[in-house]
Amino acid sequence: MEKVILLRYGELFLKGRNRSSFESALIDSIKRALAPYECTFCRTQNRYYVENYRHEQEGRIVGRLSEIFGLSSLSVAVKVRSEYEEMYAAALAAVPSGARTFCVRVKRADKRMDKNSMQIATEAGGYILGKRQGLGVDLFTPDCTVNIDIRENGYAYIYSGKTECAGGMPRGTAGGGMLLLSGGFDSPVAGYRMARRGMKITAVHYHSYPHTGLQARQKVLDIAKTMTRYCGDIRLIVVSFTKIQEEIHRRCDGDFMITVMRRVMVRIAERLAVANGCGALITGESLGQVASQTVAGITSTEDAVETLPVFRPLIGMDKYEIMDTAEKIGTFDISKQPYEDCCTVFLPKNPVINPKLDKARAEEAKLEGLEELIEEAIRGAEIIDYTAD
Ligand code: ATP
Ligand code: MG
Predict the structure, then answer these.
(1) What are the pLDDT digits (tens) for 55-106?
(2) Measuring from each residue's beta carbon to the nearest atom of ligand 1, which residues come in under 6 Å?
(3) Ligand with an atom nearest the CA of residue 185
């Protein structure tokens, strides 16, 4: 018996003018995900299937497909000829052993069949009832719905299960975003969420070596690599923040250190964004989570961004929701390693919670030669390109 995987995509994006480019981005993601496996991908009448795969690889293929942005769900189906006996036997086999009630839904694209959908559903239901003791029909809340999808090519696809996929928009259809990536829990999740809306992610990380160790840096490299699984290829730009941070420490009011650091971080990120074709900055800020993530704190950071929008997809999320996603995307275990981020070295005792914008600007203005420091940091940046497997 041949098995196939039926793929479903989000309806919305296929309706507009961008349909063909969205669709080709989605197909491209699917083909890349399937590349390591022996199988064929087919597309007929807006339906996507994976066929001719090795059954022992099914679990892995399904897992991989379920991570693709733009796919909403998938089902593993059995493919049989559109002969009644064959279809009914497959329908029976599709009812899991634990089910107590079931219903049958039939879609009949092949109008050459001599029975209509309703008749086929009734007959299939009768066949199943005759073979399985103790099973009942429930048309409204069945334990299991058996779908019989009769296609025009002389074959029917029969399935009962459904696996939810990642949803969102196909990779790269929303342009580029520059993610400020720390080693913490939040920013990888922020990147994931924007990638899920179709953004191609480029990341920038600031380190303060030797104040921060090589392990802290390695942690971010590992996070970027892990993120490629969902986000596709990622360019990581590693910028030394040491000199700038020392300058800030030397010249600025200690309580404003984080505020000024954030301002300089976004200044650098914005330039790197423009140079790398990104139309937005992305951060992992969540309102009220730490002292610098108050409305006033965010205002004083955003003030230093010249033109690009700053996306903060976690702004309204609770920490435990963020952790859940981190777990799901595989960054949790890396982020939980305790190495210091550059924001935690020289940390002030009382970081200002509601920085006044004028004061934030004045503190930053105390940095002499900031422009040169920024240019130097950008010149010295290290670029690491991660390719999705
Ligand atoms: P995260 O878990 O992402 O580190 P956080 O809750 O620890 O976030 P902060 O340390 O205040 O919050 O950082 C806020 C945001 O600033 C981060 O989500 C990230 O986008 C950015 N950021 C912080 N530190 C760095 C860094 N060293 N390099 C790049 N971006 C950073
Ligand atoms: Mg952090």
Answers:
(1) 999 999 999 999 999 999 999 999 999 999 999 999 999 999 999 999 999 9
(2) 180-182, 184-187, 204-206, 265, 283-285, 289-290, 292, 341-343
(3) 1
